[in-house]
Automatic annotation (TrEMBL):
The gene is rluB. One of its GO terms (cellular component) is cytosol. GO terms for molecular function: RNA binding; rRNA pseudouridine synthase activity. This is Pseudouridine synthase. One of its GO terms (biological process) is enzyme-directed rRNA pseudouridine synthesis. Pfam families: PseudoU_synth_2 (PF00849), S4 (PF01479). InterPro entries: PsdUridine_s_RsuA/RluB/E/F_cat, PsdUridine_synth_cat_dom_sf, PsdUridine_synth_RsuA/RluA, PsdUridine_synth_RsuA/RluB/E/F, PsdUridine_synth_RsuA/RluB_CS, RsuA_PseudoU_synthase, S4_RNA-bd, S4_RNA-bd_sf. It comes from Alkalibacterium kapii. Residues 2-69 form the RNA-binding S4 domain.
């Protein structure tokens, strides 16, 4: 279910504000009835017309991108920097990122125009697993790993229990490689967690989102999700309820 004005905007009728104006003017019907109030949720089964002309609802699209460093995870950047949406300029329909990866973080990023699935995947209650590999400063020890696994306080909240393991230690260079799997997706969470236990992140790569990886995709490359992958994502959401 999505807001009527959002569906209209996605169908290219007008901007969201322009769509709201059309609704207020009584020019929009849902299932043959004039709608003038904001906030109505509609589904794919509802028939929507503007000035008695049926709107064509956009096809749902789903992509996975191997996000490079130095790219913004948003649709627009006020500073004019490259965004993840720029990789999809040739796509007629508008897509947007599912959640965010930091400017300097690389790896798995989903993009879609499915608002309902986006909300579910990014909502904390669904707890979709996200796995990162971090290069950190310092020789990390098992005590720090246990703290990460139990959950720790960062900012004004305590993180949920996580999965953590040491991948590699370079004592000479004073570096470590750590794999961390979390269920949340708060702002800079992985970086903050590792900094809290004393190991600042130098490089961060998200290697897995649920069951999805960037296998076969070079940095900056993307592919469309297969139908069974979309179904599996929706199944993950349902199983987490």
């Amino acid at each position: 279910m999505e807001r009527l004005q959002k569906v209209m905007a996605h169908a290219g009728i007008a901007s969201r504000r322009g769509s709201e104006k059309l609704i207020q003017e009584g020019r929009v019907k849902v299932n043959g009835k004039v709608v003038t109030e904001m906030g109505l949720n509609v589904s794919n089964k509802d028939a929507i017309t503007v000035d008695d002309v049926p709107i064509t609802k956009e096809q749902k699209l789903y992509f996975i991108l191997n996000k490079p460093r130095g790219v913004i995870s948003s649709a627009v950047d006020p500073k004019g920097r490259k965004t993840v949406v720029d990789f999809f300029e040739h796509i007629d329909q508008r897509v947007y990122p599912v959640g965010r990866l930091d400017y300097d973080t690389t790896g798995v990023l989903l993009l879609t125009n499915d608002g309902e699935l986006t909300n579910q995947l990014t909502h904390p209650k669904y707890g979709i697993e996200k796995t990162y590999i971090a290069k950190v400063t310092g020789v990390i020890d098992k005590t720090a790993i246990k703290k990460l696994e139990k959950g720790l306080k960062i900012d004004n909240y305590k993180t949920l229990p996580a999965k953590a393991r040491i991948l590699e230690i370079d004592s000479k260079k004073n570096k470590s490689m750590v794999e961390l799997t979390i269920h949340e997706g708060k702002n800079h969470q992985v970086k903050k967690m590792l900094k809290t236990v004393g190991y600042p992140v130098e490089k961060l790569n998200r290697v897995q989102y649920g069951f999805l990886t960037t296998e076969g995709l070079k940095s900056g490359e993307w592919r469309e999700l297969k139908s069974f992958e979309v179904k599996k994502l929706k199944q993950l959401v349902n199983e987490s309820l």
